[in-house]
Amino acid sequence: MPALLALQDVSYAHARQRPGSAEFRLEEINLQIEAGDFCGILGANGSGKSTLARLCCGLYLPDSGEVLVEGCSTRQEENRRRIRQAVGLVFQNPENQFVAETVTAETAFALENLGVPPAEIRRRVRDTLDRFDLGHLAGMPPHRLSGGEKRRLSLAALWVLRPRVLLLDEPLSMLDSGSKKKVCGFLQELRREGTALLWFTSAFAEVAGADHLLVLEAGKTAWQGRPGEFWGEVEKANRWGIELPPVYEIAAGLSQSPPPVAGEEEFVSWLWK
Ligand SMILES: Nc1ncnc2c1ncn2[C@@H]1O[C@H](COP(=O)(O)OP(=O)(O)O)[C@@H](O)[C@H]1O
Ligand SMILES: [Mg+2]
Fold this sequence. Notes:
Blueprint: E1 5-13, E2 25-33, E3 38-43, H1 49-56, E4 64-69, E5 72-73, H2 80-86, E6 87-90, H3 103-113, H4 118-131, H5 147-159, E7 165-169, H6 177-192, E8 196-201, E9 212-217, E10 220-225, H7 237-240, H8 246-254, H9 264-271
Parallel strand pairs: 3-8, 3-9, 6-7, 7-8
Antiparallel strand pairs: 1-2, 1-4, 4-5, 9-10
This protein binds adenosine-5'-diphosphate and magnesium ion.
The site of magnesium ion has 4 residues, from helix 1.
């Protein structure tokens, strides 16, 4: 069985903005995501997270190397439809994702594009709006929603296709703490049901429960490992532009020992409370 998502020596350069200006390159990224995995991509602003997210779903094509979704290359036109159903990109700014006039139309959009019969669309949209607690907002224009509601709609509009992996580009940025908790709750639920998550962020706490982490520094892989092993790298977190949870900062300031939590599970339950 091929991996759900595999990046093999993926390199990509953005065209120079102006002649002579520095060129940004993502270099030889390798990554493998299996069904149900939770992987965190950590990096500062400008390290290449959003570029990598776009490569993972075929919005950008690699200059060299391959992005394979269930063994199908994003380069091949004939794989596009299948890849679009399997991989959902949750944009950093939900406004950039919205295309329709109402919450209902936004949630129905992808299904209409795939030619799903109208009765089936209505049923799936209703279930999806209920699930993300958006039913009472069905007729609202997306741009009128609150930050948390927009984020939930951006998830709902993808979830309606039952993607097998969600690419989450800084999904908690711009949310207040109440909305963060609610969105985290939905994401945890999706994960429990077997959706793989690839979560791009600069905040370690958001991905402390991941199976695997990759740190991007100026387009290159600076480190890979499990969240529990990150303690060994804590001194580099600053250079990498990664925000640490207070418990790490405090422990680092007091001594050289790991934070006062027994294991990842305990750490995560503490974080997500
Ligand atoms: N469309 C583009 N054209 C040229 N340069 C870009 C483009 N998009 C992003 N960049 C540059 O690529 C670098 C990485 O950007 P990005 O992937 O958005 O990083 P991050 O999401 O980690 O903040 C930045 O220096 C940015 O200015
Ligand atoms: Mg970004």
